[in-house]
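Table 4 source record.
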Amino acid sequence: MKIRLMPTLITVVLSASLLVGGWFIYRNVATVQPLERIVAEVPGVVQANPVISNDAVTLDLTLDKDANIRNIYDRIANDGKAVIGSRELKLNIQPVANEDQTKLDDVWSSVLFDVAQAMEHRNYSDIPAAMKQMEHQFPGVKATTEMDDINVYITLKDGNSAKYMVLPRTPDQMGAWPNA
């Protein structure tokens, strides 16, 4: 029995196309699109781009300056529970395109050591104290800190610009926060 090359190649290409296309359609219809709809309904979210992997759901978010990061995280985690499942929810907050965040980045850099030390030693009550000290050091900058059983949420505001940080209460081994 002689196997013909052209029909075999066509069958392999069609099968692979159907499998990859079916997986892509399933992924978009069953996971990405529902999560995009959920995030679009959350107040304070200007733009969102979900990235879903096997162990984590990462949302690249752009927030308006009056957003409450803790409420956003809670709403996405609760409303998106069916899509997120057992994956870890990570928020990667991007600044608004026309916002100048250099001052807030400098402010954050000045208080980062105190916050990292409080997170490492699990002395979470030291974080609001560090934020109050930072407010005295940098007039015009307002800081808000909140915490739940998963994360510590820090918001820095200066005029029309805002910087949001979501710090996991179980820090990575390196002690660095990729989303800060």
